[in-house]
Design brief:
Length: 135
């Protein structure tokens, strides 16, 4: 079994992976809702963590990780990923919904307050008023 370590930049990674896939596959999967950005809460080690990934056709998950010191984009079967990551809840966005949320907030996520509470760096941005909100 291969160890996949976190990048600690999953919200940025999800958008970067989406852009990469758009360049490779075109916009059709996004326009038809077959490729979605997902933000959620996972607990793979028992503690809640905010996380972001992509879902393709409701069958696979695409995320970034570090394998043997190298950053990689990984595609996994959706049900296994949800079980292994202990996904507690999630919010799915089309590219257009994600773009609107990014414009409003000034960052790549998370945009749900409950998820944002689990991201200290984003909390600092919110406290400093850098995300378009009034702290």
């Amino acid at each position: 079994m291969v160890d996949i370590l976190p990048t600690h930049s999953c919200f940025d990674d999800a958008l970067a992976n989406l852009i990469y896939l758009m360049k490779r596959e075109g916009i059709a999967p996004i326009r038809t809702g077959r490729l979605l950005i997902v933000h959620g809460i996972i607990a793979p080690y028992g503690e809640d963590i905010a996380h972001a990934w992509l879902e393709r056709d409701g069958k696979t998950v695409i995320f970034s990780g570090v394998i043997e010191g190298q950053r990689a984009m990984i595609e996994a079967e959706l049900q296994s990923y949800y079980a292994d990551s202990h996904v507690k809840e999630s919010t799915k966005y089309t590219l257009f919904e994600a773009y609107a949320a990014e414009l409003k907030s000034g960052h790549f996520g998370p945009w749900v307050e409950k998820y944002r509470q689990l991201c200290p760096d984003v909390q600092k941005e919110v406290a400093n008023g850098r995300d378009g909100t009034t702290a």
